[in-house]
Design a protein that fits this description.
Number of strands: 8
CATH topology: Rossmann fold
Structural class: alpha/beta
Order of helices and strands: EHEHEHEHEEHEE
Distance between the termini: 48 Å
Number of domains: 1
CATH architecture: 3-Layer(aba) Sandwich
Largest sheet: 6 strands, mixed
Strand order of the largest sheet: 3-2-4-5-6-8
CATH class: Alpha Beta
């Protein structure tokens, strides 16, 4: 079946590389349901960025919240922050996971970005209006939906010639105030 998708690998690569270039060496990743293709791609992008910058990979820094919601993000952030050597930055792989992580960071009396930097996924409406405007990986959801609908209409009308099987759209990193150099 033809698909229209965001480049999850590329988006996570860009976010991870950005944090590495700021000087972060321990970057935690919060996923929800690691077995989802989108989450697996995002973890792969993270791993590729670490490798490209000769940074060490530590599997304990990838935590599966076991669900893609706020509670999963909160529980995963608690695990990351309880590590003997906790991360100095976190990438939460969807917008609900990041809200849960932010709740836990606040409960631990940590400040973003002074104590910990954080990047979310999807540029949801409130991201730029939070107390600390959130840096995010933005996937072009509107463009994806439009292209998928157009593709479906062409298929339904019998236009199948020269139709690509997969259309992969680039994600972009929107840098705001939630990231800084580690202290």
């Amino acid at each position: 079946m033809p698909t229209v998708a965001a480049d999850n690998i590329g988006g996570a690569f860009e976010a991870t590389k950005f944090l590495l270039e700021l000087g972060h060496k321990r970057i935690g990743v919060i996923v929800g349901r690691k077995t989802l293709d989108s989450m697996a791609g995002r973890v792969e992008g993270y791993r590729r960025a670490l490798a490209s910058m000769d940074a060490a990979f530590d599997p304990t820094l990838i935590v599966d919240g076991l669900d893609v919601g706020v509670q999963g993000g909160s529980q995963a952030a608690q695990k990351l922050l309880a590590l003997t050597s906790p991360p100095t930055a976190i990438i939460a792989m969807n917008n609900l996971l990041v809200l849960g992580a932010l709740n836990t960071i606040r409960e631990k009396s940590l400040q973003v970005p002074r104590d910990i930097s954080i990047i979310g996924w999807d540029d949801f409406d409130a991201a730029s209006h939070l107390r600390m405007p959130l840096t995010v990986v933005d996937q072009p959801a509107g463009v994806m939906a439009t292209m998928a609908a157009e593709h479906l209409l062409r298929l339904m009308s019998g236009e199948t010639a020269n139709q690509p099987l997969e259309i992969l759209l680039r994600c972009s990193l929107i840098v705001r105030e939630s990231c800084s150099r580690p202290s």
